[in-house]
Amino acid sequence: MHGASTWPMSIPDPRTRPEIGRPALGRPRLPDAATGALMAVAAMSTVQLGLALSVPLIDDLGALGTVALRLAWAGVLLLVLVRPRPRDFGGRDLWACTVLGVVSGCLMVFFMLAVARLPLGTASALEFLGPLGVSLYGSGGGRRRWTAPAAVGVVLLTEPWHAGIDPIGLAFALAAAACWAAYILLTQHVGDRVTGLSGLAVSMPVAGLVALLVAAPTGLGRATWQSALIMLGLAALGAVLPFSLEFLALRRLTTSAFGTLMSLEPAIALLMGLVVLDQIPGAIPAAGVVLVVLAGVGATRTGARTAPPEPARPADPLPEPLPGSHVRVAG
């Protein structure tokens, strides 16, 4: 074609479309795995601090009454602070949040019932079978090599061979382990599908209701206004903060890496006992601390999640022509 043709059109500023011409770098990564690991460690630390501060109340309220008030207050706080809206949830998301709440409540209740019949170290070692199973059978085969030193470290830390096993306590501890594994998987699922902390703001009141139903016949009759207000503060420290941090951590870590990192919790408890209570660990628990710390570092270095591919965007419409703007193209 010879000659020239003209038509009105505007010339888009290339600075407004920075993605054009940018080379593809593969699938983008979610925020650094180190951020997720720090959140997980902070969650475990606040849980242990909350448990230590709750010890005086266990004599007054009982173990079930203490955990019930803590979870109930946590549910109220999250509802007030987050204020989830129906449009935050789609399809089966609300059902998944409800199931997560039931699992979270059962996890806390079963563990407290296990501790009532077993030494704390034995119950902790048995409960860790849940995260250990997630590490073994979850995604990310490269992280599984850190599961073995984590498991050995937890056994050395807790020394379960020092006491016998009560069969009912064993059943409660294994039930808590199963709930912990389900909690990890459900928390990541809900965190990926529901914006912000809205999913947690729905699941935590459900967990509080479950714990209240279990504790009502035995533990709540001795509650006073003073103990209830104290539990309000402990709910913020020992439930709202750690559950929120775990929720956010699982958006940055694979379930395998997160499950392995959970092995750090007995080590954190031991170190808090050393610093706060002057409890000096023996050589075997100290070796366990070294193993779980190494496993936690290894899981962190290889535990980042990759972001799912973004949905294709529709093509942008041609911009409206500016008055008097013409482009001449030689034909």
From TrEMBL:
Entry's family note: Belongs to the EamA transporter family.
UniProt entry keywords in alphabetical sequence: Membrane, Transmembrane, Transmembrane helix
KW Membrane (keyword) present: yes
Segments passing through the bilayer: 37-55, 61-82, 94-116, 168-186, 198-216, 228-250, 257-277, 283-304
The protein, known as: Membrane protein
Pro residues bias spans: 308-322
Residue span(s) of domain EamA: 168-295
Organism in which the protein naturally occurs: Embleya hyalina
Region span, Disordered: 1-24, 302-331
Pfam short name (any one): EamA
GO cellular component, one term: membrane
InterPro entries the record matches: EamA_dom, EmrE-like
